[in-house]
Amino acid sequence: MRKLWIWLEERTGIGPQINYILYRRLPRGIGWFHTLGSATLFLIFLQVITGLFLTLYYVPSADEAYESILFIEGEIQWGSIIRGIHFWSANFLIVIVFLHMLRVIIWGAYKRPRELTWFVGVIILGIILALSFTGYLLPWNQKAYWATVVGTEILGTIPVVGSFIKEAVRADTVVGPLTLTRFFSLHVLWLPGLLMILIIIHVALVIRHGIAEPPPKSFLRTYSQLKGSAFFPDHVLKDALVSVGLFIVIMYLAITVGAEVGEPADPATVNVVPKPEWYFMFFYKLLWFFPGKFEVVGTFLIPVIIGSVLFLLPVLDRGPGRHLFQRPVVVGVTGILVASIVYLTILGLTTPKPPGTVEIFEKTELPEAVVAGYEVYTKYGCAACHVVRDVGVPVGPRLDSKRWIRRSEEYLEKILADPKLINPRYEMPRYEDIMSKEERQELIKFIRFLEQS
Question: What positions does the domain Cytochrome b/b6 C-terminal region profile occupy (predicted)?
Fold first, then answer.
């Protein structure tokens, strides 16, 4: 081994660089919280390795994607475990990268001279979320399909350019085979390639500027006076222990729980209540507070404000103080934001009934003539895409809106039977072969009752 190292050193001259990376001195106080960055890298490594294995058998086709998942789960040796590792490491990656960013905010480590490190890190966070979104569709099951329909529909609410962005992401006017191919390309080629480039830049900047020491109450001591132990072996050992611990937990979950397969995607099925994975649940739940014409506040305005403030944090907070007491506004806003995300996530995960089956009315408060229509409404999960009494997901128009008063019975029958006869761009599936004519007539009576009440 020593001869190999001498041979490499003579030809590359990398010895000084390796020695600097491994034996550079770290500030005092660097502990377990500073392992979150290396834990993020380890989880990304797991994603790459397991993802490469999955691409050997996965078929990015709407006709064969689901079958290829069944083949990986049932026919390939270790296939279900490797897919489980991929799934659970992706979930842990979301948690760890958010904790890493939270640690940087608490330590004030985004300040000079580490502004560029922060900018790159925020972009990395965005790419990881995009990877989660694009990868979610690939199993091509019911849950993934309808969640993607809703997710891309949200993009369509962006003012001015929403329709263009939605169709660009879908590669079509609807979620279909072209969407799956585009998501696969983004998930395995474009986004990982960009992520690798940004990670190299991010790590290089961390090495260049060093790890920020825990902030003192005063900022009198300089970075050079706070030198502590070497990166290797002290901190490397902590990084390794955390990574091994994560791997053990992920392997346990991959073996005992695995990754969900679900039912194959069926665009004609209408009684499915789309719900995202837990890491997007807070956003999903946020939309419930902004129904109808206010939905753009939840789908566009709030995310843009939060994203912009997060990215520009080093510019907005340029004071020299890094201690918590010296940054009450940043710490306070961060605390409120984290608490809100946790609250909305828990609220979404613990909702006793999905919007497709929630009881909006007591049947006793409805006229007898519209009870049957209300039963049709709940049977087919209309609340998955329409709001009534501020309950439901605002993908389509509200059903208790006055807009339906001026529509004829023939119009409502036609839009229920096949919406694309009204407008080819409508996303709602055709009910002509799913819902009987009598059921459609009863549902129209219920809609008429809503508009009058």
Answer: 221-355
